Amino acid sequence: MNQKIAELSRLLSPEQQKQILEMIQTMLNSNNQPCHITDSNNTGASKPNCPYCPDGGSVKKYGSKSRHQRYKCFKCKHTFSDTTNTIMVNSHVSKSKWESVIRDTVNGLPIDHTAERLGLHHETVFNMRHKILRGIVKFLECDPIVLQEVAEL
Length: 153
Description:
single chain; 153 residues; 3 strands; mainly alpha
């Protein structure tokens, strides 16, 4: 898997690598439904919209869990946190370390190198990388890329 990623990343221009990083970081920040990978709920407002209600119902603060603020929707009564429906759900790793793992994944660096540099266990980085890759696949299934003009293989 690492070799495939490394081979593919070498084929990308710096601009394409930047676009992939931005797409993944959008997924990282998103708490919308799986096929709506945008950052519309996390705009710095004190309370996000409900990710379960189609119209994004009003919410109130509802305690915290694992250092993440919890919210409860007035309309559907669901509870959620700022990481609900993101690749960071149930993670104890900081957002900055997630961003480093994303950058290393796009650049095709080995898992062991990333783990050692960030002070994380090999298996933790392995699981993070696979969450990132599953997120990319899900994103592409929901919003396929359409090639324009000339495409060479």
